[in-house]
Amino acid sequence: MTDSRPAPTVDWLWQHSPEPGSLTEVVDGISLLRMPLPIRLNHINVYLIEDDDGLVVIDAGYNTPELREIWRNTLSGRDLGRDPRVLCTHYHPDHFGLVGFLADEFGFRVLMAQTERIIAGFLSQAHDDQIAENTVNFYRRHGMSADNLDAHRNRGNSFRKSVYSVPADYVRVRDGQTLTFGGRTFTVITASGHTPEQVCLHSADANLLLSADQILPRITPNTSVFSYNAGANPLGEFLEDFDKFATLESDCLVLPGHDRPFRGVHGRIAELKSHHDDRLEEVFDWCRESPRTACELAPLMFKGDLDLHQQMFAVGEIIAHLVLLEQRGRLKRQTHDGVWSFSAT
């Protein structure tokens, strides 16, 4: 149940992490549901918005029995209204995993950006052999060792295991569109980088931003190149799309997909830009010393032992930095025996 006390202040939320599975009202009519995750990033923030037409849920969590039970405990016996909706901000399993469960079991309509829905559909239907072949060829090109290639080959389609289902029907949301939830008007801001068309929601009147994973208060959203977006420049798009948030008030309340609500959106964006500027210089300096592959660079930037999931994101993040430096004309790419390396121009 929602806490009976008045909506807590941002300072209170910063000091007190909500309990997993608990609902905490963060502003009038909007509650945060903290969901546990079976990955290193151990939680996701789901938001419930009370609306006269029906409950609106922002994101759904990972497909696990524990999270399905949390949803049943949260929603069973509750009046969901005539038109309950779940808006999924992007296709990653911690956000999309239980969208199909909410649609199938509780009758939620699904709202998503088109690109995110297409990727979710493709990944959920891809055969294990197809995923394995694409993944192994991709990482071999970037210098991965034979042992690690075998481990990735045997992972199969991990996405399909992480999502309940992909609903056939959905309502497309677009950049610049206005949506009214709980008496507040939100403008859709789609931002690239973390994913190609991640949905954020900004209410100018309420001075409120649901930022999904685009702007997080303490960690840097992953911006990776994977086998299925091998021609992309996600880091360049990520940095460029911060311009879409330039008109927000400096004291806008940010409700992120992870961690805790905060204020100071422009300061946080400046920190994220500075972080990536520093990382770009590090990668450039390493490539200036000698030609490097992405898999040679990954342990230089990401210290410690990485499991397969973390390794995938680490290498993908390095590739994104290499791609941006190459597009800026600072690095050049060489190919030897099918393996790419990068050196300073």
What does this structure look like?
It is a single chain. The chain is an alpha/beta fold and 345 residues long. The chain has a domain at 10-124 and 159-274: Metallo-beta-lactamase, Chain A, CATH 3.60.15.10. Helices cover 37% and strands 20% of the residues. It has helices at 10-15, 65-75, 93-96, 99-106, 114-125, 128-141, 146-153, 158-162, 234-240, 265-289, 294-301, 308-327, and strands at 23-27, 30-36, 43-49, 56-58, 85-87, 109-112, 171-172, 178-181, 184-191, 198-203, 208-212, 253-256, 331-336, 339-344. A seven-stranded mixed beta sheet has the order 1-2-3-4-5-6-7. The chain has a five-stranded mixed beta sheet with strand order 8-9-10-11-12, with no helix packed on it. A two-stranded antiparallel ribbon has the order 13-14. α6 packs antiparallel against α7 (146-153), α10 (265-289) packs across α12 and α11 crosses α12. It is globular. The relative contact order is 0.11. Mean pLDDT is 93; it is low at 1-6.
Number of strands: 14
Radius of gyration: 21 Å
Name of the level-1 CATH class of the domain at 10-124 and 159-274: Alpha Beta
Number of helices: 12
| CATH overall fold name of the domain at 10-124 and 159-274 | Metallo-beta-lactamase, Chain A
CATH-defined superfamily of the domain at 10-124 and 159-274:
Ribonuclease Z/Hydroxyacylglutathione hydrolase-like
Helix content: 25-40%
Helix/strand order, N-terminal first: HEEEEHEHHEHHHHEEEEEHEHHHEE
* Chain oligomer state: single chain
Q: CA-to-CA gap between the ends?
A: 59 Å
Strand content: 15-25%
Shape: globular
Low-confidence stretches: 1-6
Name the strands of the widest sheet in spatial order. Answer: 1-2-3-4-5-6-7
Reported CATH architecture of the domain at 10-124 and 159-274: 4-Layer Sandwich
Q: Can you give the mean pLDDT?
A: 93
Largest β sheet strand count, sense and barrel closure: 7 strands, mixed
Category from helices, strands and their pairing: alpha/beta
